[in-house]
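ok so i was messing around last nite and threw this chain in just to see what happens. nothing serious, just curious
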Amino acid sequence: MKRLASIGLGIGLLASVGAATFVAVPHQAGTRNAELENFHLVGPTGRSYSIESFPSGSVLAIYFGYTTCLRICPTALNSIAEAIDSLGAAGTSVQVVFIDMDPARAALVSIPAYMESFGPRFLGLTGSSDDIERAAKSFKVKVERIQFSADPTDYAMKHTSPIFVMRPNDPHPTPLPATSSPAAIAAALRGAL
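result:
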């Protein structure tokens, strides 16, 4: 009888160890459904990025704009930087993704230097015109190129982009107006964290 009890106890312990091992295996993120918001763009070192590239425990603040924008983009990015600063240590879990929608002009400036001016949590992405257009459509961001003359360099880009806040495994991002205050952005980031 003691032997049967010992065998039963041994089987129970083995099952517990097996269950603990199964639970301890980290979840590997799969590819994101094609109908959900996403991007497939390139960072400053040539590395490819999509939403799946970021740890599931992080929070993304995604903003579409231009490194050559003089007013709206730097104001929105600065508000995001202030929001992250106000989060203290929790701000290290936030990854800002800036998507430059004008690859021709982005090639003429240093996206990494532009991102560094806002802080270490900022990553600038760009890509081919087609890849950027697909990313913008995925997030329902409208962009318009306004040509002023026959000179191909004489143009301006008009766009409207909210600040998108999401975890990489969220089905859809939460959009905030680009004019949101740092406090409003911090509240959205804190909620996502």
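not much to say yet. Strands lie at 41-42, 48-49, 59-65, 94-100, 122-125, 142-147, 155-160, 163-166, 174-176.
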